[in-house]
Write a structure and sequence with these properties.
Elements lengths: L3 E8 L18 H10 L5 E5 H5 L6 E2 L23 E5 L5 E2 L10 E6 L5 H9 L3 E4 L7 H12 L5 E4 L3 H9 L5 E6 L27 E10 L5 E9 L1
Parallel strand pairs: 1-8, 1-9, 2-4, 2-8, 4-6, 6-7
Antiparallel strand pairs: 3-5, 9-11, 10-11
The chain binds NADP nicotinamide-adenine-dinucleotide phosphate.
């Protein structure tokens, strides 16, 4: 069965997602609200884009990638311990450097790469025990191919949380791969046009990336302080 993808995000009322810009009340623990809500899905891990991962921890840094020609190479299962959550990062060009295969929050890093990354980059990931799978650069198949390979490597994976940012979420929406939206809406306005929304597809606006995808409300809850929780199923005809 295909991996169920639940897009789990926290936003302002105007859908902006850069939490560092928010002036929240001191008693509002944003990570607790986000993580406690995520926990109920019993997912086996989460997915983020390269930009979000680069900000995730101090021991992750970004470099200019060195890309080569496309060569077919096998996927690599790193030093995964049973029961660990997966932290899947779409970093096709191989820009990110890590200092090990475990994040400070305990997840095992799994990178989704282009087959054009250099042998030297792959050797470093292997030394660190980081798992990786390759995917195509064809927008139509890139994400589904990656999910297929992740499940082939980790057959216990049935649900992953898609945790942003807006760019990777937009690509998943366009590919019709989001099964549910789980949204925490804070009573705040950002207001800046240049700040990312929770779904930001960067390709052609037409056909509409969300076309043919209806949302059916599954759950709603009012949290303390006027924060709203909304969960929708994405239905495709
Ligand atoms: N409020 C929340 O819940 C929440 C959650 C997560 C993140 N955030 C915030 O979101 C911001 C980052 O969001 P973002 O939209 O700029 O970046 P993003 O979605 O985190 O990352 C985008 C990058 O992912 C890589 N990528 C690889 N395959 C891709 C594909 N198929 N489609 C799209 N991207 C792909 C590309 O890297 P290359 O450019 O290297 O090709 C792309 O530029 C951060 O400020 C973060 O704090 C907020």
């Amino acid at each position: 069965m295909a991996i169920k993808i639940i897009c789990h995000m926290i936003t302002t009322l105007d859908s902006r997602i850069v939490t560092a810009r928010w002036d929240l009340p001191e008693d509002f623990d944003i990570s607790a609200v986000y993580e406690n809500t995520a926990a109920k899905f019993n997912a086996q891990g989460w997915i983020v884009g390269r930009t979000t991962m680069s900000e995730y921890a101090d021991n992750i840094s970004e470099h200019d990638p060195s890309l080569d020609k496309f060569v077919s190479r096998p996927d690599y299962k790193g030093a995964y311990r049973d029961g660990q959550q997966l932290a899947v990062v779409f970093d096709l060009k191989g820009k990110l450097a890590y200092d090990g295969c475990v994040l400070p929050t305990g997840e095992h890093v799994l990178a989704v790469l282009s087959p054009a990354v250099s042998d030297a980059y792959l050797a470093t990931l292997q030394e660190q025990g980081i798992s990786y799978v390759f995917t195509t650069d064809d927008e139509n198949t890139m994400l589904s191919e990656a999910l297929y390979r992740i499940q082939a490597m980790y057959p216990h994976v049935s649900t992953l949380l898609l945790e942003g940012g807006g760019t990777i979420n937009g690509s998943f929406l366009k590919a019709g791969l989001i099964n549910e939206i789980s949204l925490i809406v804070c009573p705040l306005l950002d207001g800046a046009a240049s700040v990312q929304n929770f779904v930001n597809y960067h390709g052609d606006p037409d056909p509409r990336p969300g076309m043919g995808q209806r949302l059916e409300l599954l759950e709603q809850e009012l949290f303390a302080g006027g924060t709203l929780y909304l969960r929708y199923q994405v239905c495709r005809d």
